[in-house]
Amino acid sequence: MQEEKKLKEIILVILDAKKLIILSTVLCMLLGVIISYSIKPTFEVSTNIMINNQDDKEQPVLKDLSPIGDYVKSKFVILKMIKELNLNYSAEYISSNLLVEVPKDANQIKLKVTGQDAGLITKMANYLADEVGAYLEISARLNMISSYQKRLIDAEDNLKVSNSELSEATKQLQGTQEKLLTEKSLSDDPYLQSVVAEATSGSNKKVGALQLRNEEINPLYTSLKTKVADLTIMVSRIQSDKQVIEERIASNQNKIDEIQKSIASNNNQSNDGLVNFVNKYSTVLITPAIEPVKPVTPKKIINTFLASLIGFVGGIFISLFRDYWKNSPVVERSQKNISL
């Protein structure tokens, strides 16, 4: 019963102080609006970099993306960006407003840049995305060149061995007769001698004195000829593979030189901050940042609501505290002493 009475008294106190509560709510709401509109808006842009790891063995492949965060936030990259984009920010300020997300076991990188100039942070995000793309592309192609060079060394070794074997087999073939010539008399074959004697009506003695010459294919010559043909095909195949590997090494090196030249000339970015990423890299797919329209902070509606809520709760607290102060025994005694 007493609790219901106290609750009723609290409600009555709040209702009596409704003007104060409304006034504090309105004042705080106006203050929140003023603060929200006086703070400079902060924008955020992001760009995604997808790693194009295909199953094609001839395409560059990247697996370890952990160093990317440190690379993007390194002073080398940031100072280079400050110089090329003519920024009036310090490297520490840019680094604090730059977020690099590299999810574990994922094939993508997300760059986020925040700032008060929407156009400028868009240029910064695209610039950094291009730097990351170039870094990943060059790293992947250097790995490919290293792999191709190992294959090239193996191909050259195999080519030397095959050429040596081919040369030796060719020499053996040149020194081997293609056909074997054999001579024998009919007396060495009694059956054939009797058949010839009967057919020619000659004596066995005369027939046995006849000589037979026979030519046979030399099996060693045939074997060596087959070996030379197989080795010739093998040498041709190794030379063809070697030429393909050399062409791919040159192609990757030319692409690296092209990327480095493009970075040095700084001709990738247009005046509106957009970068042409289409077909630029084979290792990565970059989604360019687009200039934002709405700021991420301040959140005016939320700030206004929170300010109004604070004013409302503060008005209630003031009204309850004022009532408690008036009805406090200490205050009553002090008033009696003053009246005496």
Explain what you see.
This protein is of the alpha+beta class. The chain folds into 2 domains: 2-150 and 251-339, no CATH class; 184-217, no CATH class. 64% of the residues lie in helices and 11% in strands. It has helices at 2-16, 18-38, 68-72, 75-85, 91-96, 118-174, 190-200, 204-208, 219-265, 300-326, 329-339; strands at 43-51, 98-101, 108-115, 179-185, 211-217, 284-287. The strands form 2 sheets. The chain has a 4-stranded antiparallel sheet with strand order 2-3-1-6. Strands 4-5 form a two-stranded antiparallel sheet. The longest helix is centred in the middle third of the chain and has 57 residues, at 118-174. The two termini are 38 Å apart. 19% of the residues are buried.
Q: How far is it from the N-terminal to the C-terminal residue, by CA? A: 38 Å
Oligomeric state of the chains in view:
single chain
Residue share in helix: 55-70%
**Helix segment tally:** 11
Low-confidence stretches: 336-340
Number of strands: 6
**Radius of gyration over all CA atoms, rounded:** 47 Å
Helix vs. strand class: alpha+beta
Strand count, sense and closure of the main sheet?
A: 4 strands, antiparallel
